[in-house]
Amino acid sequence: xxxxxxxxxxxxxxxxxxxxxxxxxxxxxxxxxxxxxxxxxxxxxxxxxxxxxxxxxxxxxxxxxxxxxxxxxxxxxxxxxxxxxxxxxxxxxxxxxxxxxxxxxxxxxxxxxxxxxxxxxxxxxxxxxxxxxxxxxxxxxxxxxxxxxxxxxxxxxxxxxxxxxxxxxxxxxxxxxxxxxxxxxxxxxxxxxxxxxxxxxxxxxxxxxxxxxxxxxxxxxxxxxxxxxxxxxxxxxxxxxxxxxxxxxxxxxxxxxxxxxxxxxxxxxxxxxxxxxxxxxxxxxxxxxxxxxxxxxxxxxxxxxxxxxxxxxxxxxxxxxxxxxxxxxxxxxxxxxxxxxxxxxxxxxxxxxxxxxxxxxxxxxxxxxxxxxxxxxxxxxxxxxxxxxxxxxxxxxxxxxxxxxxxxxxxxxxxxxxxxxxxxxxxxxxxxxxxxxxxxxxxxxxxxxxxxxxxxxxxxxxxxxxxxxx
Amino acid sequence: xxxxxxxxxxxxxxxxxxxxxxxxxxxxxxxxxxxxxxxxxxxxxxxxxxxxxxxxxxxxxxxxxxxxxxxxxxxxxxxxxxxxxxxxxxxxxxxxxxxxxxxxxxxxx
Lengths: 470, 109
Known about the structure:
The complex is a heterodimer. By secondary structure, chain A is α/β, with parallel strands linked by helices. Helix content of chain A is 45%, strand content 13%. Chain A folds into three domains: 4-48 and 98-203, 3-Layer(aba) Sandwich (Rossmann fold), CATH 3.40.50.1100; 57-97 and 207-417, Rossmann fold, CATH 3.40.50.1100; 423-469. Chain A has 18 helices and 13 strands. In chain A, helix 8 (157-168) links the parallel strand 4 (141-149) and strand 5 (172-177). Chain A is globular, with a radius of gyration of 21 Å. Chain B is α+β, with helices and mostly antiparallel strands. Chain B is elongated. The chains are: A alpha/beta, B alpha+beta. Chains A and B meet through helix 5, strand 4, helix 8, strand 5 and helix 9 of A and strand 2 and helix 2 of B. Strand 5 (172-177) of chain A pairs antiparallel with strand 2 (38-46) of chain B.
């Protein structure tokens, strides 16, 4: 028997085509390769056009702040001569409080231009607020689909707050219990309403983030005379990394090291009804970061514009306790009270800056707004209520979902390197698996996979040989 | 203030609806999720009078009509910051002291 679920999922391609107003099949080159740059530029907007769209939308041009106190704190625990200067792009100053406004502003502009009556996005995070805010400005209707509650109807405080703010901007918020079928219901709503799919992973959204990289390069050149040595990016679905890195490249900042950072949530299942409220981060974590980097095309669009492995030079993980500690430190030392998830990269940057010479510079490329529910205190109080232990100690003892360890001293902040080679191999394996079983990758496929993993043809050939042997 | 016992047509309310029962759910879910129905809540203007637990339809902010069980009348938001976290109380004091000491030595370590 064909269920309603099967029926809608079977029409997924057709529904999304209508809802995106874009035919992705034009970019396909083989069962493995597609023309990424052609897809990214298909909307026809230059970077200047996007800057203009965002200026009208009230988005971008956020302050870049040097964190002199945090820098000196890092220097106080570094070897002689070490401790890079740390800067932060205060993206909380955007209209709806996060860099996600950049993403939403372009998507909503496109929806309006194409004549849609409304927009739909599936998101439990800042992107919902951004879409709702921009939709309000453009006079479009807006539905946000959220995974909000466990089966006991207990809501994650950060997500409950996000529902509030979306409703404050006049959006209809569809709140659901845990499960990947959120996507199924979003498809049902797209089918029913004919609205535009303001996907996080479309080329429109990811292009909107490029202005962030562009601003960072320009502002750092003005402030320090050079592009940043490293840019640290809170990493979830990969759009933030992809868009920022592309923007830096387009600005000519080719030497800047791209460092992605996620909160370590290893061991927690993202579709688990019981794990759902035992995680104290709803984004910026490895539960999105790893699966989306290693198989970006699992997203709600046929080809994901967020392809972080094309750009990442280094991938760092930090613990929940470290990020909460740094969030508190940012408020107390820099007068910047911001949301915890956005400070994931800050925790990693403090660890990274310790290894770097004093003349080096590190830019943390975002902050996000904070408020009731969406605050490190709220998250920690909630964690305790859910039976998670919270204590001071060595963050190495952190265990996601079981114990959150708040560092006792800044020396204990220690980001860990995630094995990028393993991620790249995993991506290549997934790309091959998505092609028909008897398909033999061509030289063009190898070139595509090399670009998509920031490696070279020989490395990809070696990975393919390893897969054939396995 | 007591919650109203019944919603009247035109009131701002929330309805609850089951989207998928466990047998209709996606395959490959962890067992604790697969055993539960996929539930949904949405707010809108009540299309009729009704008491909590009764079936009604609402008109949402986008103008959609959604049928469900009345789950809340004039639903509010009660998330907070909560109490300060004792394990974080030391952070500001300690780090400011470190910074002062570091700068007193000339910051030249």
